[in-house]
Specification:
alpha/beta; 4-stranded antiparallel beta sheet; 22% strand; elongated; binds zinc ion
Length: 416
């Protein structure tokens, strides 16, 4: 690599300005962003991004699920491009960095290479994946999942939001149903920069997380059927209380996850009492459970131990508990060569770094099932994300973008 390329740094102030400039699309009073996928605000940021890409000389195309791709030509166009990017949609009360950092850092990498007059051997392709967050349409990360063939395009297009609007209708409403069939844009590899969304880097005073794995996920739907009866006249020993049962199940999930901590987490995030009333013993409750680990053997153990605990609690309390595993996503093991490229970039740039597991799901995790992928994490304040308070520092964002750029340069090669 030439000396100019070796010492190249992104423009920290320009990256910071773009993050704050685009945060106005869907800005909330508390300093966060509400930019639900395929909303009017999403169209605004997409239009901004498209123009910025075109101004940077990229050839922009949009696939039939609205994912945006900006191609920067390489010297050798017979080579597949190296992909980089993330997403521009947010949670309903989201922050300015989740997804945005990775997408705008990809743009900043291109701008920096343009300014320095650096041509890469392989082309580069910067990406904005549709609906990473999953808060308007399920599933989350739907476009990258369709890209790798987990769902058909038609299946995703037919998914509806809470108002009954389909993905197809929402894409048409903002004119982002593109021409390119999903999966047409190929990559030799993909690198995603993201805020950690957890507390580890900050606590250990590390600037860069070299993400080598992602947690697998077990999602359950549960239903407890006990018996509704009078809160005053039913003796304690005769009750079949669905909520008391759920309480034990919640504690069981917690204790199972703790037993395998720090390599597992477990959460009951939803519970709905049917016909709730102050003086009625709850007879029916629907609940969900979410268990995760980056270790496949521990995922098996979580599933086994959860089912055993639920069966024991149900039998002892004489209630029926139905437990359905509705989604099982295996752990992600990112591509060793790309992980190494990220690690070497962090090392060469002199940033403190450590290997880390991603606790959250990301488009890169989906992509990694078909193409080599890796991720770069930077710290976020107090580990807070999916919250308007989400915060990250300008130097950390710049460091992440520099690592992204140098990892991508190593993969794409610099033309001499
Ligand atoms: Zn994200």
């Amino acid at each position: 690599m030439s000396r100019a390329a070796t010492n190249l740094q992104i423009d920290s102030a320009r990256l910071w300005d773009t993050i704050h400039e685009t945060a106005k699309f869907g800005a909330t009073p508390k300093g966060g962003v509400r930019r639900l996928t395929l909303s009017v605000e999403d169209k605004q940021v997409r239009d901004w991004f498209r123009k910025a890409c075109e101004d940077a000389g990229l050839e922009v195309h949009v696939d039939t699920l609205g994912s945006m791709f900006g191609l920067r030509k390489g010297k050798d166009m017979s080579k597949l491009p190296v992909g980089l990017g993330s997403h521009l949609d947010t949670q309903p009360t989201g922050g300015k960095y989740d997804g945005v950092l990775g997408t705008l850092a990809a743009l900043e990498v291109v701008r920096t290479l343009n300014d320095a007059g650096i041509e890469t051997e392989a082309p580069l392709c910067i990406c904005n994946w549709t609906n990473e967050e999953g808060s308007r349409f399920a599933p989350a990360m739907m476009a990258s999942a369709a890209y790798v063939g987990d769902f058909t395009t038609d299946d995703i297009l037919s998914r509806k939001d809470a108002e009954g609007v389909s993905v197809a209708e929402a894409l048409d409403a903002i004119s982002y149903r593109g021409e390119t069939p999903v999966g047409t844009q190929k990559f030799s590899g993909f690198v995603e920069l993201h805020i950690e969304q957890g507390p580890i880097l900050e606590a250990e005073h590390k600037t860069i997380g070299v993400v080598d794995s992602g947690q697998g996920v077990l999602w359950y739907d549960g239903k407890i059927t006990g018996f509704e009866s009078h809160a005053g006249s039913t003796p304690m020993q005769l009750r079949r209380d669905a909520l008391a049962t759920l309480s034990e199940i919640v504690l069981a999930v917690e204790s199972i996850a703790r037993k395998h901590a720090p390599k597992a987490v477990g959460t009951i995030g939803e519970a709905v009492i049917a016909n709730p009333s102050r003086n009625v013993i709850p007879g029916e409750i629907a609940f969900t459970a979410d268990c995760r680990s980056a270790d496949a053997a521990i995922m098996d153990a979580l599933d086994r131990e959860f089912r055993t605990a639920v069966a024991e609690i149900a039998a002892r309390r004489k209630v029926e508990v139905k437990l359905d595993l509705i989604w099982r996503k295996p752990p992600t093991h990112f591509d060793p060569k790309l992980v190494q490229a990220v690690e070497q970039a962090a090392e060469a740039l002199g940033y403190s770094h450590r290997r880390i597991t991603s606790g959250a799901g990301h488009d890169a995790c989906n992509l990694n099932t078909r193409i080599p992928a890796a991720m770069v994490f930077v710290p976020c304040k107090d580990g807070i994300s999916h919250n308007e308070l989400e915060d990250a520092t300008q130097p950390d964002c710049a460091a992440g973008a520099n690592v992204l750029m140098h990892a991508v340069l190593a993969l794409a090669g610099v033309a001499s």
